[in-house]
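Priority: medium. Attachment 1 of 2:
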């Protein structure tokens, strides 16, 4: 039986490239990649990915990592959303003036009253009404009975069986992908020392802020982690597993950046937060284990894209504030969770996406604040910002460093925010179209064509929609929760 199980057959793919039947010349360029297609299909049955998604070695993502450059001391209170951090670059007076003017909210209200496209009254109301957001249940509610209470032994599945259960359960509750990695002495160094703790915009002149505002994160010599008023903890006595969780966001909303639609787009990553926190918390408690997450970057002690990349759910992007997946592209929300149920670690992926960024650079071209690196290659060195060291980045990855300070200053204080990089990313395409399956296969297997594909993506007109067409979103008939989740199950679940 052929394991070339995509809905695009090998012959269709070759034909799409105009290479079917070719033996030399152009086709020979592809031969190293096509030799081993069947070998690429190494993902487990419970986590089938498109055929062009290659598995790498455990712990070795397409982003180079130097663990010796990390020490677990990153202070997330200094990340680039805070008055305090911006003030290190532009001064407290200017920062506090910006905050006190309430400029963005006032401009958005004025635009709504003037019926500017993208700020209509219904669009404005939809944004204010958007549900979702972080949960406040690090250890979850105990709404189910434990095995002890049920009078049965704790569930004892193999790591692979347990991974299968977690994949199926999280998919049911709204994840498009999860990626699993083992917490070891290296990955402990990626954890933060302090949390942002839901205090966005609040950390100002007082430094350090009280731990009741920004909690400390600690590994403790216990079997079970906990949260109190000043800290959150994970158990150091148990083997823990890190789970990167990806949720889909609406591509069509992101294409309407910047506008109120962009605000709504950003909120779509949280539509599934409640079920994705409460469900696994209770499910694993019912099996006799523990699960920890707030489903929030500000309240959880790690960079969620890093968790997704290490567990094989995603690759890092040039715009290194986000990572992207082969299925959903740039329009994904990412979250992290931890558990003590034994799981099978998953290999980081290579879908050619991070490599594609080297020849693309579309997000950098369209970034209005010039925050996205235009370097040809990623670097270990973190660039300066306004001549000063960037306190909001931590070293140890070879990246295109996006300036979080200049980016946030732009989008936090202008009507409609920004989000152009999400909306315009070359991977923000309708993945179900055949041409995109072919293109993504080419990106993965024949990087030589990446420049050509970038130009094709531009000529297709993908990217943000013109301002005058913003309100056309209301005319679309989009799937439930605003995104096509069928693209996340490569075989739609039935191609066993
Ligand atoms: S959100 Fe806007 S300003 Fe920030 S990096 Fe993206 S394009 Fe640039
Ligand atoms: S627009 Fe291009 S360079 Fe930027 S993240 Fe997307 S693929 Fe990478």
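Attachment 2 of 2:
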């Amino acid at each position: 039986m052929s394991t070339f199980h995509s809905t695009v057959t090998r012959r269709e793919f070759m034909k799409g490239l105009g290479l079917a039947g070719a033996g030399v010349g152009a086709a020979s360029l592809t031969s190293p990649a096509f030799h081993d297609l069947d070998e690429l299909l190494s993902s487990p049955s419970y986590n089938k990915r498109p055929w062009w998604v290659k598995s790498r070695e455990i712990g070795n993502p397409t982003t180079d990592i130097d663990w010796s450059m990390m020490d677990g001391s990153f202070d997330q209170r200094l990340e680039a959303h805070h008055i305090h951090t911006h003030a290190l670059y532009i001064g407290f007076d200017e920062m506090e003036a910006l905050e006190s003017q309430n400029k963005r909210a006032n401009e958005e209200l004025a635009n709504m009253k003037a019926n500017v496209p993208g700020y209509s009254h219904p669009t404005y109301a939809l944004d204010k009404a958007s549900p979702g957001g972080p949960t406040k249940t690090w250890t979850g509610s105990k709404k189910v009975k434990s095995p002890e209470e049920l009078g049965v032994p704790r569930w004892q599945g193999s790591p692979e069986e347990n991974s299968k259960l977690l994949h199926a359960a999280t998919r049911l509750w709204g994840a498009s992908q999860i990626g699993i990695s083992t917490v070891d002495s290296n990955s402990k160094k990626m954890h933060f020392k302090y949390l942002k703790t839901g205090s966005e915009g609040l950390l100002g002149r007082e430094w350090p802020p009280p731990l009741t505002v920004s909690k400390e994160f600690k590994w403790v010599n216990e079997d079970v982690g906990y949260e109190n008023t000043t800290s959150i903890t994970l158990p150091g006595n148990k083997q823990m597993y890190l789970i990167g969780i990806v949720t889909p966001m609406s591509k069509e909303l992101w294409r309407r950046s910047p506008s109120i639609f962009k605000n709504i787009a950003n909120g779509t990553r949280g539509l599934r937060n409640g079920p994705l926190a409460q469900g696994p918390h209770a499910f694993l408690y019912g099996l006799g284990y523990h699960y920890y997450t707030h489903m929030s970057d500000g309240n959880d002690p790690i960079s969620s894209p890093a968790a997704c990349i290490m567990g094989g759910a995603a690759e890092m992007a040039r715009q290194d504030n986000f990572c992207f997946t082969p299925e959903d592209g740039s329009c994904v929300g990412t979250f992290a969770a931890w558990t003590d149920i034994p799981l099978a670690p998953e290999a980081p992926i290579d879908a050619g996406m991070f490599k594609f960024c080297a020849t693309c650079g579309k997000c950098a071209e369209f970034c209005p604040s010039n925050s996205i690196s235009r370097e040809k290659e990623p670097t270990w060195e973190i660039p300066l910002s306004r001549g000063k060291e960037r306190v909001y980045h931590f070293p140890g990855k070879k990246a295109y460093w996006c300036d979080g300070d200049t980016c946030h200053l732009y989008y936090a204080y202008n009507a409609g925010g920004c989000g152009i990089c999400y909306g315009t990313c070359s991977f923000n395409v309708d993945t179900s179209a055949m041409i995109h399956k072919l293109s993504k296969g080419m990106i993965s297997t024949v990087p030589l064509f990446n420049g050509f594909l970038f130009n094709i993506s531009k000529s297709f007109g993908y990217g943000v929609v013109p301002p005058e067409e913003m309100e056309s979103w209301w005319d679309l008939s989009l799937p439930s929760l605003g995104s096509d989740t069928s693209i996340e199950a490569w075989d739609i679940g039935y191609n066993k």
